[in-house]
Amino acid sequence: xxxxxxxxxxxxxxxxxxxxxxxxxxxxxxxxxxxxxxxxxxxxxxxxxxxxxxxxxxxxxxxxxxxxxxxxxxxxxxxxxxxxxxxxxxxxxxxxxxxxxxxxxxxxxxxxxxxxxxxxxxxxxxxxxxxxxxxxx
Length: 137
Known about the structure:
The chain has a domain at 22-76 and 96-130: lithium bound rotor ring of v- atpase (Four Helix Bundle (Hemerythrin (Met), subunit A), Up-down Bundle). The radius of gyration is 22 Å and the shape is rod-shaped. By secondary structure, the chain is an all-alpha fold. It has helices at 3-7, 12-46, 58-79, 89-135. Its main location: membrane. The chain crosses the membrane at residues 14-35, 56-77, 97-121.
């Protein structure tokens, strides 16, 4: 077995592309959950206070940005994979680990933004209702 075959096996690119896929898939899942959950809060609060809908779009925008982070990291990982040069197993594992870090962090962040956005938007509508009703007395 040659030294280049030993340190650069053919299956090492699988781990690199698994990192690319995990970065994209997990951040997109987190972004989708955050957008959906925040949208539920907007529809719940927007039925009673329609003038608050534009102010309540911040969690939706924040959740949408998470998928962009996954896209950027996936492009950076795939850009460093050169088929003409040797792609070592260490590089494949390093790209897999970085893709998993970005992807799972994006999934957790989207989940948190969704929950906090839902409760925050509903609470914002409730506080706005109480503030207006208290100022009328």
